[in-house]
Amino acid sequence: MLPTIAKRSFRPFYMGSIFDDDFFPALTSKTSSMPAVNIREDEKKFVLDLAVPGIDKKDLKIDINEDVLTISSETKNEVEENSDGYKRKEFSYSSFCRSFQVPDNVNREKIEANYKDGILSVSLPKYEEEKNKISRQVKIS
């Protein structure tokens, strides 16, 4: 079980790297392959918007395991070309994985996702709170 800081807040997991700028400034790049994320909340739901341009919908994966929502992608490309005595072979690999702790008030059975124009939106609806809460005084015996 992962620790919870606040009952109703999302907390992204981030593990620093031994190769951070502080240790190896020449090895690190200022660009990141980790997608940016916006987290919105209203009275009915949380919404996570991830900027994942250029990634095909079929390469995105969303898993929920107890109180952790994980969004990941892995793509591999290989191109081989032979023409006019030239031979070229290129390959590339990219991946990311973002994990978020899901608050207790989210209905995990109704989580939905939509991908449009390079933005992955994940909707996490909250449980409906009781409208007629009973209040009473408890007698001490």
Name its key features:
mainly beta, 141 residues, Immunoglobulin-like, rod-shaped, 8 strands, 4-stranded antiparallel beta sheet, disordered N terminus
If classified by CATH, what would the architecture of the domain at 33-125 be?
A: Sandwich
**Mean of residue pLDDT values:** 79
Shape category: rod-shaped
The stretches of 5 or more residues where confidence is low (pLDDT under 50) are 1-7, 15-31
Describe this structure in a few short sentences.
The chain is mainly β.
Protein described:
With 141 residues, this protein is an all-beta fold. It has a domain at 33-125: Immunoglobulin-like. The chain has strands spanning 11-12, 37-41, 45-51, 60-65, 68-83, 86-101, 112-116, 119-125. Strand 2 (37-41) and strand 3 (45-51) form a beta hairpin.
Secondary structure elements and their pairing?
Layout (H helix, E strand, L loop, with lengths): L10 E2 L24 E5 L3 E7 L8 E6 L2 E16 L2 E16 L10 E5 L2 E7 L16
Antiparallel strand pairs: 1-6, 2-3, 3-8, 4-5, 5-6, 7-8
